[in-house]
């Protein structure tokens, strides 16, 4: 997609938006609701028309083509199986509109039901299937036609947690198996991070950063991405030249920082795992433990600084046991470069 | 308290039933009582021998068929379009469909006479156009309500993303999922045409209701007998439609 702009009334849903999805890879668009990610997907699908900009599949300009002529497969957030057709008839629908020979339809559909593991349920109607099964059939319906691009519009958000992670892995497995170029739109970071080759973070109709999941997390392009992806502490800090000081230590300022006002104070953006706690020595700033959230292998310890600001620290579940609620501790930051943002 | 509530519930149900049943019961008794005591089918036989009445019934049924076909051809794509493209205008459009109820028949009737092409004016089938509009408050609502109950946008997007055209989507996806609403629209339209008197009379066509009125003026029992029969016919139609339109999924879901 090249330089796409789309307005709804006075709202600018997409602002000079460009996105390239390498063939056979899975790219996620991540962002809060209203950031334009679904608009981008619908324009790519041909269900919406862009005000400006062009859309290409390979080198073919499809900007003027309707959705029905674009050769796409799509899975929606809402349950979208046709209620009047059995699961099998739903999956056959796309092949029939393409006038695929009957023998071939049978083989393709048999195979795809095998792959999604729902062979037993082929003759059931959508209302007889669970939410997860319905979305699997919808996925089968989208990929059985071997589309050029697979578009997934928050397909997991209506499901409960366990089914969601199962289906998430299944989407990735099937996508790799068929090598389908895929765009996945979601507001859930875990989903985007776990299954994507690349994650694009969107904000107010613009693509802020697109990178491998790990890089988006570790090297966010700007404070907006840093705050949106993963947990982030915002710690008051003092500026001095190209350095920033907080918790009794001085760090280099990351070049990706954003400082609009040239004051002496700012916010240091620090991940919970980049902070450490200690009790016996006077290292860093004093804080009081508010509560501890146990998360399996790790625990998240919530602290209140003397300035009343709350922060959190990631510890192994084992070391978190050493601390109790109400205890006074000293908190310090690690690392060499710190990203800062205006207060 | 509980007993009182149950008593009141049944009381109102029974009063309601009586309100509807008593006139039908009285009409039946009146129409089919013989002057020698007991019951007789004589009024119906008299109707069967009345050539004009039979002809008018056939004409009305044909007009009903035409009205139904034109209504469905117009309304299904229109309502689909409204739901897909201009969903925000639904309120206004629904309001517009009510206008046939508030414009007096004489105004509309004369309006039709002026606006119809001459060739159409010469045939009673001109009434089809009048009836399509007259039935609009009912037929539009029935179909609109069915569209509200499904996720038109998602079903449409899913269908087009799979390569189906607008027509295919309407035919294979939307219509089968709004059948209940379509059946209600058909039924309401037929019921309306079978009983419509004002337009037919104003435009001087001998449809079933107008002929019935003439017959009623000379022999009341025949007219009432036919009214009762057409009422029963409509009830039967309603029952059949309810039975065949009950979607499979609704049955299994309960």
Structural class of chain B: mainly alpha
Kindly state the percentage of residues in helix of chain B: over 70%
The coarse silhouette of chain B is globular
In which range does the helix fraction of chain A lie? 25-40%
Beta-strand percentage range of chain B: under 5%
Looking at CATH, the homologous superfamily of chain B is MetI-like
Any idea of the CATH class of the largest domain in chain A? Alpha Beta
The CATH architecture name of the largest domain in chain A reads 3-Layer(aba) Sandwich
| Strand tally of chain B | 0
Q: Which pair of chains has the greatest number of interface residues, and how are they split between the two chains?
A: A-B, 31 and 22 residues
The helix/strand order of chain A is EEEHEEEEHHHEHEHEEHHEEEEEEEEHEE
Q: Can you tell me the CATH class of chain B?
A: Mainly Alpha
Predict the CATH topology of chain B: MetI-like fold
Q: How would you sum up the global shape of chain A?
A: elongated
Count of helical stretches of chain A: 9
In whole angstroms, how far apart are the ends of chain A? 35 Å
Unreliable sequence segments of chain B: 248-254
Task: Give the structural class of chain A.
Answer: alpha+beta
| SSE order of chain B | HHHHHHHHHHHHHHHH
Predict the CATH topology of the largest domain in chain A: Rossmann fold
